[in-house]
Amino acid sequence: MSLKTFTHEARADFKTVGAVAPSSPVLRDAMIRPLPLEYARVVVEVGCGTGVMTQGLLKRMPAGAKLLGFEINPRFLEHLKSSVKDSRMELIEAGAENLREEVQRRGFKEVDAALSSLPLAFMTEEQRGKFLGGLTEVLSQDGVFTQFRYLTGVQLKNGRFEIFRLKEVLLRYFSSVKYSIVWRNLPPAFVFACRGPLKGGKSKSS
Q: Which pTM does this prediction carry?
């Protein structure tokens, strides 16, 4: 997919795409590096986009592993179907808030690693809660979840823009959240690596 096409999608539906350009290889590597992919059996990617992260995950996953990729943008879905020719990949046209149900519907009790490129700041608190709460229910205790957020990240709350404090949100769902900064991306981004999923039901923010 060309940069022009990606930019068109971003302008048409920025709340869903949440980016002005595809992720750089540096950001891709920073997102994938913390994940325990060497022995993974089930991996989840949420917000596959143009497949930058997808291709990186598939290169590092074992031959017998499964990648469940969530994407709701029709243009990106068509691109992924035509460009990713790997039998380990299963595309799921469903929102992140349905993650737990979709994983379990396919017969998987746990996932070993999860990666999200979603613009969490643009999701409602309820959507974020269902996504992260559902993820912690299926992520193994030794599993790792990575998420990025642009340094300029803001959210619209009560009609006002304010800084989106993602680490505070993630600590409601994980016992350990560490982050690094990737400067060589447009724009620069924080990468959060989350461990120790806090089990126990619905959104910890409710």
A: 0.84
Residue type, 84: V
The amino acid at residue 8 is: H
CA 23, 19, 174, 161 torsion-angle sign: positive
CATH number of 3-197: 3.40.50.150
Q: Quick: pLDDT tens for 35-89.
A: 999 999 999 999 999 999 999 999 999 999 999 999 999 999 999 999 999 999 9
**End-to-end C-alpha distance for the chain, whole angstroms:** 39
Comparing CA positions, the residue from 182, 203, 202, 172 lying closest to residue 117 is: 182
| Strand partners for 197 | 174
Please, which residues have CB within 8 angstroms of residue 95's CB and are 6 or more apart in sequence?
70, 72, 127
User: How far apart, in whole angstroms, are the C-alpha atoms of residue 94 and residue 44?
Assistant: 13
Please state, in angstroms and rounded to a whole number, the distance separating the CA atoms of residues 153 and 163: 6
Two structure tokens written together for 193: 């690596």
